Amino acid sequence: MILEHYVVGMLQTNCYLVADEETRQAVVIDPGGDAERIAGRIRQLGLDLVGILNTHGHFDHVMDAWTLKEELGGLIFLHPKDEPLLSDHKVGLGALFASLAKSPRGKVDEWLEEGEELTFGSIRMTVLETPGHTPGHVAFHLPDAGVLFVGDTLFAGSIGRTDFPGGSYNQLIRSVEEKIFTLDGKTKVFPGHGPQTTVERERRTNPFFN
Fold it and tell me: What b/e string do you get for 1-29 counting C-beta neighbours within 10 Å, with b at 16 or more?
C-alpha cells in the first residue's frame, strides 16, 4: 500500500493519498487545498484516482475535491448529513475565509453510511460514523493495515472543536469512546491536523478522556 501525507491549504490540513501498488487505484482523503501539487504527485506515481473521500464538509477539508475531480476524475464521497456545509458557507465555515474558499462546483457522487465497506484494488476501508465535530463526520478504518483516518474528531492529545454549527461535545466524546477507542490499540491514527498518534496512546494520555 502506498500512503503519503501532505499538509495543504491555509489551515494546514492533513491530506492523505492511499493507493494499491498492484492495481494503481488511488484515493485522496480530505483535499483541502493544493490540488495541483496532489494531482502532479498522482501523475508522477502513475496512479488512477478513483475516489475523493471527505471525512466531513468543512471547507478546509473539501475545498479542492472538485478541482481534483476535474483534473483526474474519481468519485466524491461525503456523509449526507454534511451536505448543508457545502451549500451554506456560514455553516461550512467558508465565510470566514471567503476570498480563498471555493464553492463546490458539482454534486457529491456517493453518500457514506455507517459500516459501509469501500474497496479500491486490494485496499479495504470501513466507514465509521463519528459525529460531533460536524453532524455527518466519518472516519475511514483500514483494518488490514491497522490505520484509521479520523479527520477532526480526534487529535494527538486533543479533540476537534464542537462550537461550530452542528457540533456537539457530548456526541464527539461518545464517537471517540464507542468507535475509535474500541479498536486495536496499535491502530495508527491519522488526524485532520497535527501529528499522527495511536489508539492506545490517546486512550492512556488524552486529557479529554483521563
Answer: eeeeebebbebebbbbbbbbeeebbbbbb
pTM over 0.85: yes
Q: What is the pLDDT of residues 87-101, one digit of tens each?
A: 755 444 444 444 444
Determine the 3-state secondary structure of 184 from DSSP: coil
- Output the domain CATH number for residue 67: 3.60.15.10
153 lies in some domain: yes
Helix, strand or coil, per DSSP, at residue 34: coil
Nearest to residue 177, comparing CAs of 115, 132, 135?
132
Q: What is the pLDDT of residue 100?
A: 43
d(CA 71, CA 28): 13
Over residues 8-26, the mean pLDDT reads 96
pLDDT at 85: 86
| Average pLDDT of the residues of the chain | 91
> Domain tally for the chain?
1
Q: Does residue 62 sit within a domain?
A: yes
Residue 210 located in a structural domain:
no
Domain that includes residue 111, residue range: 2-205
